[in-house]
Amino acid sequence: MAARNAPSLKLWLALSLLVLVLDQLTKVLIVGNFQWGESLVMTDFFNLVRVHNSGAAFSFLASASGWQRWFFIGLGTVAAVFMVWMLRNHPKQKLFCLAISLILGGAVGNVLDRIFYGHVIDFADFHWSFLAPLFAGGHFPAFNVADSAISVGAVTLVIDELWRVRQSKKRRQ
Questions:
Q1: Does residue 78 sit within a domain?
Q2: Exposure winner among 101, 123, 130, 138, fewest CB in 10 A?
């Protein structure tokens, strides 16, 4: 279902692959250079750390008995297949496909962590005193390249939807 002047599925999958490679490369560097729990101060608001998250975002279900690993692998796999289908069927929607590609690359990156390590490797630790009421010591939960791509993709999806709603209203006027 290719459309004229629309980027091909290959382009969007290549973007997802780029996210995946960057994610896995950074995690290999962290695992190779840091012990679990080790931290390196980079600035007054950022540390490199090595932490493991067996749960989802914000360590949701991290304390479950282990079933969550397989649940998140299954969920991520089903979501990845669905996202490829979405990319294939909406080639004219460039911003939408950009968002889905970022989310896809990040989701696959975290699924691979769960398969190979049993948990997700996180390493970016931002901290500011104004976050102290929300997070221990003002440290935002550590995250990785995959999490960043998923977050940017999600924000991009919202922007895309708002733009499409606005365009639809203009056409009806």
A1: yes
A2: 130
pLDDT tens digits, 11-55: 999 999 999 999 999 999 999 999 999 999 999 999 999 999 876
The edge-to-edge listing of strands for the beta sheet with 39-41 is 39-41, 46-53, 120-126
List the catalytic residues.
122, 147
Q: What is the pTM of this model?
A: 0.87
Tell me the residue range of the domain where 101 lies: 9-172
Alpha-carbon span 47 to 153, nearest angstrom: 24
Q: Which of 139, 111, 101, 75 is nearest to 7 (CA)?
A: 101
Q: Residue 171 is which amino acid?
A: R
**Kind and range of the H or E run holding 49:** strand 46-53
Q: Are strands 39-41 and 46-53 parallel, antiparallel or unpaired?
A: antiparallel
pLDDT, tens only, 156-171: 999 999 998 888 877 7
Residue 23 lies in a domain: yes
